[in-house]
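From the methods appendix. Each design record in this collection lists the tokenized structure first, followed by the designed amino acid sequence. Records were kept in a plain field format so they could be parsed without special tools. The example shown here is representative of the layout used throughout.

RECORD:
FOLD TOKENS (153 positions):
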């Protein structure tokens, strides 16, 4: 029997637009639409909760299997304690179903899988936006900040 894992927080991440012609036309009428390559990864949110980096599902459940990556993200989030990295994580060499099973387990990822693990960060959102659904800075502005965090430029 599976056990229910507690939520560390209650995020409300952006959900993808329904990709039918009517939905696309409605969305395009609102202004520019940003797109990026879609990887068949597992959505995750990376943020600081009570001063500690946590990697969670989009429902706010901690992905303890990814604890080894917390220190790398701690350095990226220094000075951005009120932000959330919206990302996808992939474990290369595994189909989505197997990868999902590896990521949802309580145990750390096997050491041999760490070099095969790739995070694709596609947005940097204020925590208040993620929790309350408040308006955020324009997407191009968030991407500029994200670029600065990652490259240091």
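DESIGN:
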């Amino acid at each position: 029997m599976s056990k229910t894992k507690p939520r560390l927080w209650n995020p409300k991440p952006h959900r993808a637009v329904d990709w039918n012609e009517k939905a696309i036309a409605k969305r395009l009428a609102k202004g520019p639409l940003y797109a990026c390559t879609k990887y068949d990864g597992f959505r995750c949110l990376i943020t600081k909760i009570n001063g500690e980096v946590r990697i969670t599902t989009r429902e706010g459940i901690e992905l303890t299997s990814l604890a080894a990556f917390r220190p790398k993200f701690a350095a990226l989030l220094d000075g951005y304690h009120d932000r959330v990295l919206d990302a996808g994580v992939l474990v290369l060499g595994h189909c989505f179903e197997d990868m999902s099973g590896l990521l949802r387990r309580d145990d750390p990822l096997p050491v041999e899988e760490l070099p095969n693990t790739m995070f694709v960060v596609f947005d940097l959102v204020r925590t208040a936006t993620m929790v309350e659904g408040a308006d955020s800075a324009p997407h191009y502005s968030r991407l500029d900040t994200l670029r600065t965090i990652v490259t240091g430029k």
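APPENDIX NOTE: The CA atoms of residues 76 and 149 lie 6 Å apart.
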